[in-house]
Specification:
By secondary structure, this protein is an alpha+beta fold. It has helices spanning about 5, 10-15, 30-50, 50-55, 60-70, 75-85, 85-90, 90-110, 175-210, and strands at about 120-125, 135-145, 150-160, 165-170, 175. The chain has one domain (about 5-20, about 30-210): Nuclear Transport Factor 2, Chain: A (Roll), CATH 3.10.450.710. The two termini are about 20 Å apart.
Length: about 210
């Protein structure tokens, strides 16, 4: 990723939606644009009110992700899409490791961007497509100082327990997260297989931890 992309990628945190709502609020029939607006605003409020998160406390950020984030993200699907064809050949144990290391990579890479959140607001654009589509994209803009930042969510509608909208990909300034990482992961798998990718992710996470 180039420096400009990293600078503006702090909205990734918003895209994943650190919601502090109770499960009762997460209605299965919630409109997708309303869902995005709600979790975005709650994320901004949560970050602004927590000095530890704004200060880059990795433990507090990881706790927030584990306790509040994963209910809104189909992270298994996100990891599978980023891994590409290699995912189907991975054992269940390898798939779990990939999810763990990928999540940690995203958290450690972008946690520092939380300190940039101040007076930003979210503008949800008119929804394209029917609200009953099982997969759709909700487009938004993050507005604050400077030019608005494009931030789009790719959602799926899930049935059963915990039914509702789940995020499985996002687009910041024209770059889709899954596609960006799939290119990197494909090279690692071609060079060393799934274990090679896991090792590479683990090494990157250890290096990021040492820098922190």
């Amino acid at each position: 990723m180039n420096r400009k992309f990293f600078t503006y990628f702090w909205p990734f945190v918003l895209a994943l939606g650190f919601s502090l709502s109770s499960a009762a609020v997460l209605a299965a029939d919630e409109a997708p644009d309303a869902f995005v607006k709600r979790i975005s605003n709650e994320t901004l409020d949560a970050v602004r009110s927590d000095k530890g998160i704004k200060g880059g406390d990795i433990n507090k950020i990881m706790q927030l992700v584990d306790n509040k984030l994963m209910m809104h993200v189909n992270f298994r699907r996100m990891t599978a899409l980023a891994t590409g064809p290699g995912w189907r050949n991975a054992t269940p144990e390898q798939q779990e490791r990939l999810q763990e290391e990928f999540k940690l990579l995203l958290i450690r890479t972008y946690s520092g961007a939380l300190t940039q959140i101040s007076d930003q607001s979210i503008q949800v654009k008119p929804l394209r497509g029917a609200t009953d589509d099982k997969n759709l994209v909700v487009q938004t803009e993050v507005r604050g100082k400077g030019e608005p930042i494009q931030l789009d969510y790719r959602l799926e509608k899930t049935p059963g327990v915990g039914a509702g909208w789940k995020i499985f990909d996002l687009n910041v300034m024209g770059i889709w997260l899954v596609e960006n990482y799939r290119t990197q992961f494909s090279k690692e798998i071609n060079a060393g297989g799934v274990d090679g990718l896991i090792k590479s992710l683990s090494n990157r996470n250890k290096a990021n931890a040492q820098k922190a």
